[in-house]
Amino acid sequence: MKKIIYFITVFFASLIGFAQDGSLDLSFVVQDGVAEYSQAIVQADGKILIVENFVDSNGNTSPSKVKRFNNNGNVDGSFNDLIVTEGGFMASLAIQPDGKIIVVGPFTELNNVTVNNLVRLNPDGSLDMSFNNNPEIDGSLLSVAIQADGKILVGGVFQNYNGVSRDGLARLNLDGSLDLTFNTSIGFTDNNYITKIITQNDGKILVSGLLSFSGVFKLINRLNSDGSEDESFINITPFIYMYCDYGCGYYSVFLEKDNKILIGGVFDVYNDINHTQLLGSNMVRLNANGTLDTCFYTDLNISDTNSFYPSAIQSDGKIIVTGYYPDYNGQVINNIARLQPNGQIDTDFDIGSGSNGGISSAVVQPDGKIIITGIFTEYDGVPRNHIARINSTSSLSSEEFGGKTVKFYPNPVKDILHLDLPQGVTAKQYEIYDLLSKGATTATVLNYNSINVSHLSNGVYMLKVETSDGYFINKFLKE
């Protein structure tokens, strides 16, 4: 009985010791802040790339920049900052498996070097001169994605790439040359406006924006690996009414673990093509074949001043939504909230007073914490200059680790904790957090994936293991 009482006491104490989901992470501080209109991308090593786009109150823009920060918010001095010295802005980034960075946008000069809409950076931020950074494009690139084989998909507003017809979408070889085996003219007919590209595990490709396929308008479509239209994908567009005065063509699109597709934008969703019954606004989820997922519903409504879109999806399927929105059904959610996988509000996500300005983007780190950027200068009353990190306990459980099973045993444990990792996955190092004292122990994993915990006092601990396939986080009881 004493052991049971002790366990319950320690367990609830551990809950108190944990930071509340939605609260500000006070350990993350970017001293000089970032531009109001910035986007964050988290690298595999935990470092944070920031794309800064500067816009003043009159709508005038200043040169875009790319910076990199360490995990604690300090500037990474080993990274060569990138700045647009001629042309427009940086629209999208993608990171290759080797750490090199693809940047696209309507720019013609970076760091005083002539380029055209596309560059590849080395991991230290310097230009990769072995890559074709100056292609011939009769328009602008706005989106980029990396395929599993390393080939590069670029989308935007153009009709020709290096003199070859490619209406809005092209695929590049690893050196930046045009991949002639990928021909989007099979399915595209008119000039296309592609703002988002997502690659699926089966090699198929999702594209969204202002699209026209054989004269039929679509806000999202799926292509086969050769660029032809996937005719099995249903067109959802007739069920949607779009408010094009608020950014028609720019949608946030996420591919979920079960290949369902979450789309955010300024639109209303209806039950049929006659728009008989309103099902929701700003967000819609599609089944893998493109049909409407009627199990997903959210009450977030648009207006002239309010907008809210999905910005990130956690490992547990919960959805981070951000934008310019003061409340949700009477509950204060100043500019950020978390939804359950079915679209309903997650009341466990407590943001306090939230941000004092709009939040334009969010990205989830491997440890579950969330980086946000926007036009705010405070979060929950604490000064934060357009960038902040929010606590979240969302993490990969043994059933959710990239679709693979991770086990650790015994639990409770007295001496040695053993890790049972999937084939091909190796452990690099671990951290053990004492939930009562908030102290941490970091070390490399012992031989045979074993961790000696005999020196620990009895209690509840959090184990975080860095592996070759990501992070595994879970609790264990030391007795």
What key attributes describe this structure?
globular, mainly beta, 2 domains, six-stranded antiparallel β-sheet, Immunoglobulin-like, Methylamine Dehydrogenase, Chain H, about 475 residues, about 40% strand
Detailed description of the structure:
This protein has 1 helix and 38 strands. The protein is mainly β and 479 residues long. It has 2 domains: 1-18 and 396-479, Immunoglobulin-like (Sandwich), CATH 2.60.40; 20-390, YVTN repeat-like/Quinoprotein amine dehydrogenase (Methylamine Dehydrogenase, Chain H), CATH 2.130.10.10. The strands form 12 sheets. The protein has a 6-stranded antiparallel β-sheet with strand order 1-2-3-4-7-8, with no helix packed on it. Strands 18, 19, 20 and 21 form a 4-stranded antiparallel β-sheet that branches. Strands 35-34-37-38 form a 4-stranded antiparallel β-sheet. The longest helix is centred in the first third of the chain and has 16 residues, at 2-17.
Q: Care to give the gist of this entry?
A:
The chain is mainly β and about 475 residues long.
Radius of gyration: 23 Å
Percentage of helical residues? under 10%
By secondary-structure content and strand pairing, the structural class works out as mainly beta
Biggest beta-sheet profile: 6 strands, antiparallel
Number of helices: 1
